[in-house]
Every structure is written in structure tokens, then in C-alpha cells.
Amino acid sequence: MSFTSSEGPKTLYDKVFEDHVVHKDESGSYLLYIDRHLLHEVTSPQAFEGLKNAGRQVRRTNCTLATVDHNIPTWSRKNFQSTETFIKEQDSLLQVQTLNQNVKDFNVPYFGMTDAKQGIVHVIGPEQGFTLPGTTVVCGDSHTSTHGAFGALAFGIGTSEVEHVLATQTIIQAKSKNMRILVNGKLTPGVTSKDLILHIIGVIGTAGGTGCVIEFAGQAIEDLSMEARMSMCNMAIEAGARAGMIKPDDITFEYIKGRPLAPKGAEWEKAVKYWRTLHTDDGAHFDYNIVVEAKDIIPTITWGTSPQDALPINASVPDPTNVTDPIKKSSMERALQYMGLKPNTPLKSIPIDKVFIGSCTNSRIEDLRAAAAVVKGQKKAQNVKLAMVVPGSGLVKQQAEKEGLDKIFEDAGFEWREAGCSMCLGMNPDILDPEERCASTSNRNFEGRQGARSRTHLMSPAMAAAAGIVGHFMDIREFQYKDNDVPKISIEQDAQDKALQDAVYQHEKEPLQQGESLDELEDDEQKDIPPEDHVTKEMPVKGAKAPVPSAMQPFLTLTGIAAPLDKANVDTDAIIPKQFLKTIKRTGLKAGLFYEWRFVKDANGKDQETDFVLNVEPYRKAEILVVTGDNFGCGSSREHAPWALKDFGIKSIIAPSFGDIFYNNSFKNGLLPIRLPQEVILEKLYPLAKEGTPLTIDLPNQKILDPQGNVLVDHFDVEDFRKHCLVNGLDDIGITLQKEEFIQKYEAMRKDRFSFLENGSKLYIAARGTKKSPYGNTSQEW
Ligand SMILES: CC(C)[C@H](C(=O)O)[C@@H](O)C(=O)O
Ligand code: SF4
């Protein structure tokens, strides 16, 4: 039974999407059921607060799994006593404590700091078998696209949507376009999926996938291990896509089988039968088709401040004098200045200061093995001040230690750390000093990403490790390995992986009795789990007030000063840098808006205003932003970006295109993003904004006018449903809760057809409070 029935051949995305439609309204907007919801401490506090204020509960705790990752220090937890003593930064501590409390209040399964299963949210989901093919997976985090490697429809959402999913287990979605990136042939030795995805982003650009779900297909993709597939899909968001997907196959099933939250026994068989139907049908329509020849790709790194600034390692730093497009030329000049690079310098000759091996892109066991293979028997270069290796989860760490990888790194002078996001974003103490250059396996090289004025170059784990050994970037294919016994840049899944992984899981459980298999034990455990449907439905919510209708200010007509911004690819890290994300409130973010662009430090370390447009009259009172370049709000899912803009007084942003998640988040906060062709902006709106002339945005009539009432733009597009909500100041959750009947109908169908999804994270709800800490402490968070 399907809730929608479109005829004809379908793409993988079409199939998964259609199998989750709860309701489609007249305006064409869909309500989709969410199977898996991951939570972390940065984007959830305001969502839980919203639930509490409205007296709402978590609809399905067993579809939910929480962990801490962004804020936590990566230094040793051997002497861990309490979160309070371990986390020194008070704002980081507050976010972690808030999550600790929220998971208790709402009975959400949680891997806290004393749990060996804790780790980066996109590492733990797959590792536990929580992420499954054909599921919808969301998280208040842009790199949720990672989970698409399993043939799941997985995408990042903002905090308002986190609240929506917690309350309703659904999300309001428009259908995306289908894009296929076909990678023909085989990758050559030394070339990994990280090189492949950097190459692809270099070709299609960071806005290339906007509005699309990308399916990665072809021989080179099918040959990839699950871990390598995850690195690919992880960075689909850097190509601007809503999600990345790869058809599930035997490699996928083999990876999932036996994981703690994966279906077992007959449910496993039923699941695999369904999962085998999840592939693009012959003749299915793709809106965009891109073909890449695997043999053409060589190890690739970034030189600039956007993931699209990717080049083969044997290239040189680009020269802006060769660029004619003025916007591209000036952004290249700025990037080179920021990165401290001279045009035409060979990439291989650039020295580095630090190495970071980690992040949700490349912190899994296979990544660590590839890096260890390079490092084995070698020593970190003298000029490299720090090389740190941060495993993606406690379980990855344990496995690496069993294999002796920690020793290999430490012998070479690399630091071996505890799991977390770490220097990928530096919300914890792991940051670069100003102007330090880092060889990093992460996914974003934005300005200030790894610390104020930091310089990030993205690359594969083996390339980052090699840079740490020789002290500058190098082509991994030319690297002289010391020890031939260790696997070199393995792209294949090692069968031993899972055996070891299973051993780790087993260690986590009660010791097995003689003759008892792990499978049997898990089946028994699952029998003990109380029959759940809406486990928390009757649960009193601590701190809950009487239900209040939450409504926004209606948006009708806006007349205001429009600030001109002549930039492309303005990412949400630039709109609101990471240090301002450590709040548990939605307000008070004005001071952080465009912080690195609005302020410089004086000799006394005090903030002084720059000549950035919002510091100049009359734009200090701007209510509209007129942006000339594409892809405004790309990158992170942080809803703090629209919160900060709103706090400043901005109510509408006009740009040629927007980052998908930012676009969504804006509407949820009463902020109107308007897409217009670049030539219209340049000809009609930008000149008026430059001279300080106010603009009028008439949302009901979808027009833009000048102060005399002359029509400048006689039509802009906005989806009916979004317009309806803005014009009437309506709250999405309230609207969705009125569709309870449809949600229940879907859930009844799901219980039958997708019974193998029912348990979800229930194992950890039942187990809560009974397990011992692997570190031997009695933990309050356990
Ligand atoms: C903090 C979170 C909102 C953010 C994201 O969405 O990506 C972070 O993980 C990042 O990588 O910038
Ligand atoms: S991109 Fe970095 S900060 Fe964001 S979830 Fe991944 S590891 Fe964490």
C-alpha cells in the first residue's frame, strides 16, 4: 500500500519519498513521515523549550536518538568525574546539561559523555543500525545527508523543524528535483571517495545541487565501501543538494546486519526484500544528469574558502587575472588574501601548521586505517605544530585501539583524542590560531571555520596524514610508505571490520552465557522491551505549561531600507559564527550577525566596527538585504542565522538563490526569502539599495515596488503553503497536529508494511539506567 501512486519508472528518491507521504495538500505541499530523528546539543535546546512551552510531548521516542558531539572537549576521559568538571566553557556546558535534562524529561534514548557509544551524530546512527535503507532520516544538522549512503532520504533541518518532528513525527516538504551523478569506471589507486566528492563539487559548484536530491551511481560508486559512500553523501550538502543518495546493495546489507538496532530474524528478511526494490527504475526521469569518468580524478584538495575551490593536487593556486566575471574575480581575490596564498604557487609546495583527522566526513575506522598506514613508522614534520586524530565515536576509538592504530599515531607524534566534532568546527577548545594553515579531513573550509582567521584545506585522510609527515601538501601517490604490512588507503570494506565491531558491541552488553549467540541475546532483549507505540504520550512533561497557540507576526507588506550585499555563497558560518551557537535561546543574536565582517579587534582586543554595509547609515536600520550572488545561506543548518538576521531587524532577503535549509528556516521565523534572477537584482533593485532608497515588498500580490509605487518586480515566486503561513502568521506544528487522523493512518500502515522499522532505538529506552559506564564511573547521565 502506498499513500501516493505515481505511475511509470521512478528514481530511488521518488520511491522513498512516496513511501513516506502522510498527506498532500491542495497547494502541493507534502507531509512526510520521519522514521529516524537524530538529536545533538546545539540545535535541540530551543526545540525542547518550544515543546515544553506548548505542553507538547515527543511523539515517538523510539524513532529518536540523541548524543553530544559539537561542544565536548576531546581530551582524555579517563578521569572523567562529571560533565560539570569536564567541560570548562560555561556556554558549552550549558548546552550539554540542557540536553542531559531534556532527554530525561522526555525519555529520549541518549548516548551521553560516559557512554562508549557517544560520538558524532552522523557516525553513531549508521554504527548502531539506526540508519536503515529506505528510511527518512532528519537531524538539526546539515550533514544528515551522510545517511543517504544507505539509500535513506536524509536531510538536515532547522530547530523549528526539529521541534515539529519531535511533536508530530512528520515534516512538511516540497518535492525536490532529481539529479544523477554517474561516475563511470574505477577510481585509480590513491584516489578515495573524498577526492571524488571534492572533484564533483569543484565541477558543479556549491550551488550546483540546489533544489535537488542527488543520486550517486555508476561503477565507481558501487565499488565503494559503506564508509566511503558515507563520505560522499556527507558532502552532498556542500554541493547545495537537499540530500545525496546511493542505492542500497549487498555491501549495504552486509554493513547493517547484526548491528544493535538493525532488524533481526524474519524482520531482517522482510526488510531486505523491501530494500532490494529501492533502486532507480530503467527509464526513470532525472532533471539533471552529470557524468564523471573515475579515471580522470586524481587526489584533490581545496585552496580557497569554499568547498568548490577544489583542484587536483598537482595544480597551482589559481590566478584571478585569468578570471573575467567580476563577482568570481573579486571572491577569488578575497579568498587568496584570506588564505595567505599567492597565485600560481604549486599546491604541493604549500607548508602547513596543523593536521586534523576527524569529522563526520572522515573519522570512521577505515579513514583512521588509511591515515595510520601513511603514518606508520614515520615522524611528524618539525614545522607541524599539532596533528590530531579524533575518532568519530567511542566505538570507533575502541576498535582503532584494538588494532593498535592509536600507538601508530602516537609514535609518530600525532595526538590521539576522544570522539567528537572537534576542530571541524571548533565549538570545543580545539581551534586553530589566526592564520594557521590546516590539512583537514573535514568538509568545510569557510572563513573562520576552524577558528578566527584560520586557513583550512580539505582533503582525504591519507593526504592529511602525509602532509603531517612531510610538512606540506603532497600527492599521496608519491608518498614513500615505511611499512608495507599495513593496508594503504583501503577503499574496500574489510570483512574483519564487522567482526571487531561486533566484539565491541558484545563487550557493551551483559556477558554471553555459554552456547548463547549474540543474535539470540538480542532477540530476547527485544522481547523484554515493553510494547511501545507512543511511549511518551501519557508521560507528564516536566516544566510543561498549558498548551499555547504559538503564532508568528503576519507578514503582509514591508517597506524598508534595503542593504546591498555584493557577494556570492554567503554561508551560515559567516552569517553567525560558531561561538554564537552556544545559546539555548532564539533571541539576542544581533551582536553575532556577520560578526567577522562587522568587527575587527583593536590593540586592546576590543571590537571595532568595520565599514561593512550594516555598520553604515542608513543600512544600520535595514529591513531588507539585496544580495547579488548565488547561494545565500549555504552550509550549516543553524537556525541561528535567520534568528540573528531577524534580531538585527532584517525581515526579507532577496537573492538569486538560497541554501535549501536556510530558505526553509527563514519561513519558520517569519523572514521572507525571495529568489529573483541575478540580472533583475542587478538592474532593478541593487542600484536603488545602493542609493539608500527604500523598497516595498508586497507579499499578498507578490510584487516589489519603489517609494513612488512603481512596480520594480511584477511577480516573485513563493510556494502557496509558505505564503499562506506567513501572511496569516501560522505555526506549522499547530497546522500539522490538525492532520492527526492522517498521521495515525500512516502509522497503522507502517506498523504492518514496515514492521522492521518499529523498534527503532527502543533497545536503548529499555536499557536506560541499567548499563554500567565503560569508564567505571557511576554517571548521572547514564
Ligand atoms: C551546529 C550545526 C547546526 C552545524 C550544521 O548544521 O552543519 C554544524 O554541524 C556544522 O558542521 O556547521
Ligand atoms: S560537519 Fe563537523 S561540526 Fe558538523 S556535524 Fe560534522 S563533525 Fe560535527
TrEMBL record:
GO CC, alphabetical: 3-isopropylmalate dehydratase complex
Signal peptide from the UniProt entry: none
Coiled-coil regions, chain positions: none
Domain Aconitase/3-isopropylmalate dehydratase large subunit alpha/beta/alpha: 14-471
Catalytic activity, reaction form: (2R,3S)-3-isopropylmalate = (2S)-2-isopropylmalate
Class in the EC hierarchy, top level: lyase
Keywords on record: 4Fe-4S, Amino-acid biosynthesis, Branched-chain amino acid biosynthesis, Iron, Iron-sulfur, Leucine biosynthesis, Lyase, Metal-binding
Location of the Aconitase A/isopropylmalate dehydratase small subunit swivel domain: 552-679
Pathway: Amino-acid biosynthesis; L-leucine biosynthesis; L-leucine from 3-methyl-2-oxobutanoate: step 2/4
SUPFAM superfamilies for this protein: Aconitase iron-sulfur domain, LeuD/IlvD-like
Feature: compositional bias, Acidic residues: 517-526
Cofactor field: [4Fe-4S] cluster
Biological processes annotated in GO: L-leucine biosynthetic process
Entry keyword Lyase: yes
Disordered: annotated span: 508-535
EC number annotated for this UniProt entry: 4.2.1.33
One GO MF term: 4 iron, 4 sulfur cluster binding
Similarity annotation: Belongs to the aconitase/IPM isomerase family.
Function noted in UniProt: Catalyzes the isomerization between 2-isopropylmalate and 3-isopropylmalate, via the formation of 2-isopropylmaleate.
The protein, known as: 3-isopropylmalate dehydratase
Originating species: Lachancea fermentati
